[in-house]
Amino acid sequence: MTMELKKRLKKLTSILSLLFVVGCSYYSMAGSLPPNINNVNIPLFINETSEFEISEKITSNIVDEIAIQNILKIINDEKNSDSTILGKITNVSDGPYSFDVNEQVSEYRFTLSVSIQWVDNISDKNLIEQTFTGFGTYSLDNDPSTDGIDNDNDGILDENDEDEFGDSRELAINIAINKIASDIVNSILSTW
Ligand SMILES: [Ca+2]
Ligand SMILES: [Ca+2]
After folding, report:
1. Total of domains in the chain
2. Domain enclosing residue 126, as ranges
3. Which range is least confidently modeled, 6-10, 141-145, 171-175?
4. CATH code of the domain covering residue 94
5. SS3 135
6. How far is the CA of 11 from the centre of ligand 1 (A)?
7. What is the pLDDT of residues 19-69, one digit of tens each?
8. pTM value?
9. Whole-angstrom Cα distance, residue 176 to residue 48?
10. Residues within 5 Å of ion ligand 2, judged at the Cβ atom
11. Which ligand gives the minimal distance to the CA of 171?
C-alpha cells in the first residue's frame, strides 16, 4: 500500500469514527432532550476584537452546523424562541508561533476565543456557559498545500489533505471557526 493511500484510508477511518461518535451521541441522548427546548435563536455574535467580519463568519458557521446536525430548529424571531445562543468573540491572537534554526518565523498561529451562553428563555437559566478556543496554523510565505505545516492539526499534511488550500491566513481563520462551531454543537448535544 502506498503512503498516500494509507493516509487517505486513515482520513476516511477518522471521518467514519467521528460520524459514529456523533451518531451515537445523537441517538442515545435524543430521548432526554430538555422538553421545553425545541428551537433556538442565534443573534449575531458580539465582536470585542478588531478582527474584521469575524462575527458574521462564526455566527453563520454555527447556524449552519446546528442546521446540518438537525438538533434544534433555528428561528429568527427572538421573542418566540425557546432558547437563545448569545456569543461573544472575546479574543483573537495572531502572531509568530514557531521559529526555524535561523530564528526566522516558520509558523504563525491564529487563535480565536468565543464565549457562549445558551439560555433557556422560559426559566432564564443558562444551559451552557462556556468559552471555546480554536486555532489554525499558517505560513506567510507559502501556499497551505505546500507549506510543510499541518494547518488544521488533523495529522494530514499539505497535498494529502484536501482541506489545505487557498489563502493561508484566511484558511487558518476558517479552521479556528470550524473547530469552535463543532465544539459548540458537541457541547449542545452533550446536554441531553
Ligand atoms: Ca492537515
Ligand atoms: Ca499545509
Report:
1. 1
2. 3-189
3. 6-10
4. 3.30.160.150
5. strand
6. 10
7. 555 554 444 444 455 778 999 999 999 999 999 999 999 999 999 999 998
8. 0.80
9. 17
10. 144, 147, 149, 151, 158, 164
11. 2
